[in-house]
Amino acid sequence: QAQLVESGGAEVEAGGSLRLSCTASRSIFRGNSMGWYRQTPGKQAEVVAAITSSGNSVDYGDFAKGRFTVSRDNVKNTLYLQMNALKPEDTGVYYCNTFPPPGATMENFSNGHWGQGTQVTVSS
Fold first, then answer.
1. Residue pair 4/111 in contact by the 8 Å Cβ criterion
2. CA distances from 102 to 56, 83, 108, 120 (A)
3. DSSP bridge pairs for 49
């Protein structure tokens, strides 16, 4: 059964750091570009970062550039997101999936194609 399990979310103060992890089943991870996505309160879901299957190319949402770093371990089928200089507006639920996501949509994180996400809360 294809699975995505995100972890590492926590409550931190502004300026702090977190490292998120996403362990995926082989069928999802191997050979696919992967992405981090987030749903923040009152805003549409957005792409945080993406990385190619080899890990040689990455891209970030404008808000993440210079603060976040995406990486992957193709042996452990695990995706990472190092987040530094966190801001209160980074508060939300963070998900991982293939990039682009299944159906190329982020409309519904509860449609069975996503993990449970991990909550990041940044206090001011």
1. no
2. 22, 25, 11, 23
3. 36, 60
| Dihedral, CA of residue 62, residue 76, residue 99 and residue 4, to nearest 10 | -100
Give the tokens for residue 95: 């998900």
Of the candidates 36, 10, 14, 9, which has an alpha carbon nearest to the alpha carbon of residue 86? Answer: 14
Q: Write the pLDDT tens digit of every residue in 57-111.
A: 999 999 999 999 999 999 999 999 999 999 999 999 999 999 999 887 888 888 8
Total count of residues recorded for the chain: 124
Identity of the amino acid at 61: G
Residue 68: beta bridge partners?
Answer: 83
User: In this structure, which amino acid lies at residue 66?
Assistant: G
